[in-house]
Amino acid sequence: MNFPHELPPSEPPCGPVVTLVGAGPGHPDLLTVAAVKAIRRATVLLVDDLVGDAVLRYARPSTRIVRVGKRGGCRSTPQAFIERWMIAEARRGERVVRLKGGDPCIFGRAGEERRALEAAGLRVEVVNGITAGVAAATALGVPLTHRAHAHGVIFATGHTRDGAPSPDWRSLATLASQGYTLVIYMGVASAAEIERGLREVLPASTPVGIVQHASLPQERRVHARLGDLHAALSRHGLASPAIIVVGDVLAAASPHVTAPSAQAGGAAPTPRAGLNPTPAAVQEC
Ligand SMILES: C[S@@+](CC[C@H](N)C(=O)[O-])C[C@H]1O[C@@H](n2cnc3c(N)ncnc32)[C@H](O)[C@@H]1O
Questions:
Q1: Burial of 109 (0-12, 13-18, 19+ CB in 10 A)
Q2: CB of 132 closer than 6 A to ligand 1?
Q3: Minimal CA–CA distance to 98: which of 157, 31, 109, 284?
Q4: d(Cα 145, Cα 83) in Å, to the nearest integer?
Q5: What are the structural domains, with CATH classification, of the chain?
């Protein structure tokens, strides 16, 4: 069997194309084969905050890697600027890959970027990735839709666009009380508000799980109760990036279930011949 990095890169499609690629929750073992192929094919990689350097080892030495997140103390690059940049590079004939954490279509602005790129006459490809919420659930030992406890799952965000109303936590709590597991992204800063809103319907004893840095060596997991959510975050010093899972499925959590990467100690892959030992020409901001 070939490993992903030994597979030949797939043929580049004709005409200018930009590929929106999900890099998964962070550990390079959780990249898809399609993601590895796209990264290897890229001549320009625009990389989001939560994409770790280990993932970038799959890029070719000549690939220009541009960080467009907040790492290194930089402010986040404005969205319109990123879109203009992708358009300009693709029109110049570069093979542009926009690499995002998790799945590009889950709280990843894929919709906005696709619209801007298509409006500029470019073709857009999407490569799905493992979204952080699913990786976090595995870290907690939880099947999100365990049929004894849940018949659905809701991905919600604790952070909305400036000026947009907050999610209706009361309504989401009602759904949770009817057997829907809540998976909350970007919820750390608003944990007090989330706890208050959900508690209007759900009992304080409702199980919650929090995972910071799911799939990475520094991963941390905490099991708590809804009535203690905000306090548990501060007590354990948990910060972003973290996922909060709420629901009775946590009662079925198994401490023995872990992702293979976590079992292996989260080691990054050894670069192979022809791959970057270190990210090439990483440019911050
Ligand atoms: C802008 S959203 C991007 C989500 C991403 N597109 C996905 O599908 O996972 C960023 C949020 O995703 C969550 N997140 C991303 N990576 C994570 C990780 N490895 N562990 C825990 N949470 C993560 C955190 O809630 C973080 O604040």
A1: middle
A2: yes
A3: 109
A4: 36
A5: 4-131+267-284 (3.40.1010.10), 142-253 (3.30.950.10)
Q: Cα–Cα–Cα angle for 264, 267, 268, nearest 5°?
A: 135
**25 in ligand 1 pocket by Cβ < 6 Å?**
yes
Query: Is 48 among the residues known to form the active site?
Result: yes
Q: Which residue has the tokens 């090439």?
A: 280
Q: Is 186 a catalytic residue?
A: yes
The string of pLDDT tens digits covering residues 39-76 is 999 999 999 989 989 999 999 999 999 999 755 445 66
Radius of gyration (Cα) for the chain, nearest Å? 20
> What pLDDT shows up at residue 149?
86
* Closest Cα to atom 12 of ligand 1: 185
Out of 37, 86, 103, 186, the active site residue is 186
The count of other CB atoms within 10 Å of the CB of residue 231 is: 14
